[in-house]
Design a protein that fits this description.
Strand order of the largest sheet: 3-4-6-5-7
Number of helices: 13
Strand content: 5-15%
Number of strands: 7
Structural class: alpha/beta
Radius of gyration: 23 Å
Length: 338
């Protein structure tokens, strides 16, 4: 049976297991990509109740996960080019691998799909069960400790971001801004990046980032987790939103402070306002100005949804354009020279 939205939703919702059977039989990643888009559109159109939102949300997870599997299979078999491969390098081959763009799949779709494909199926099932668990009618069902903890958070809508929170980010990638939740990827709202570029005249380097984050950061040079920015040279105008893990954040802040006044001309540092830590104290002593936003920054997940950070943040500026920094960042909160 062909996998189309009409097979899933013809006025009534087909059982998820039935749709999963169709997904498992679909082997064309371009068709599955179209189906994922249809499911996401259907959620917006039909998700008028929590039950229907969760139906489409779960279906989006399984659909995108299957797409990730097909991309990985195609790359392993050589029918699809891997990211960064020169697809013409095998010119002697009768059938050189297609790029994802050739079949209508963009980089962001591919990254999200492959992240889901790396999550065990049982973890997804457990997450969906935790979201849909009803204490009134299901007291006799066995709940794991993870499910019990999740229910206390009162997060009732199935989503990819929720799944990553539930699994503690077991989907590959690197810890960028964890917000104390374990999610691998959160991105800075563009307004803060626009202000930083306006102050510094541009961003030459982002040493702790990801390919997806660069859609908004737009740094001249950047380093991902696999490239390990701590081992690279830093220079020019730097934007730094370091990994928020307790072992990495101090190392990135120390490297920034070491470079200020030498190879680093200007820098903007976005961190939690952990004023009691040694690394924050050193950053504050080295910086020229600071902005304390009047509200916690709602970082954006890879689906475009704002998060709910557990503490406030601070933006520290290193350089001579103090007046300009305070002028640009005063719209976000209290600014002071240091």
């Amino acid at each position: 049976m062909e996998l189309t939205l009409n097979k899933v939703y013809g006025g009534t919702l087909a059982p998820i297991d039935q749709v999963k059977a169709l997904l498992s039989n679909e082997c064309d990643p371009s068709k599955l990509s179209d189906f994922v888009s249809s499911v996401e559109a259907a959620k917006k159109r039909d998700g008028k109740t929590l039950e229907r939102k969760n139906y489409w949300g779960e279906l989006a997870l399984w659909s995108r996960r299957r797409l990730g599997e097909l991309i990985q299979i195609g790359q392993d078999e050589g029918t699809l080019a891997k990211q960064g491969d020169n697809q013409h390098s095998g010119s002697d081959s009768e059938s050189p691998p297609l790029s994802l763009a050739d079949i209508g799949i963009d980089k962001k779709q591919s990254e999200r799909a492959q992240r889901l494909a790396s999550i065990p199926e049982e973890d997804i099932k457990e997450y969906v069960a935790a979201v849909n668990f009803d204490d009134v009618v299901a007291d006799d069902l066995i709940q794991t400790d993870r499910m019990k903890k999740w229910r206390k958070q009162n997060e009732d809508e199935v989503s990819m971001a929720g799944l990553l929170r539930f699994t503690g980010g077991k989907a590959g990638g690197h810890a960028h801004v964890s917000l104390n939740t374990g999610i691998p990827e959160w991105y800075t709202p563009s307004a803060y990046l626009d202000a930083a570029r306006a102050v510094m005249g541009g961003i030459d380097l982002d040493p702790a980032t990801s390919d997806m984050a660069q859609e908004t950061v737009q740094a001249g040079t950047y380093y991902t987790a696999s490239q390990d920015g701590l081992t690279k040279d830093w220079a020019g105008c730097v934007w730094l939103n370091p990994p928020y893990s307790s072992n990495l954040c101090p190392q990135f802040v120390d490297k920034l402070c070491d470079g200020v006044g030498n190879e680093i001309n200007q820098a903007c540092l976005l961190v939690n306002n952990a004023t009691e830590t040694k690394w924050f104290q050193r950053a504050a002593r080295t910086a020229s100005a600071v902005c304390f936003p009047s509200a916690r920054i709602k970082f954006i997940d890879d689906e475009g949804n704002p998060g709910a950070p557990l503490q406030g943040q601070a933006l520290l500026y290193f350089g001579s354009r103090v007046k300009k920094f305070c002028g640009k960042f005063s719209s976000f909160g209290f600014c002071a020279t240091l």
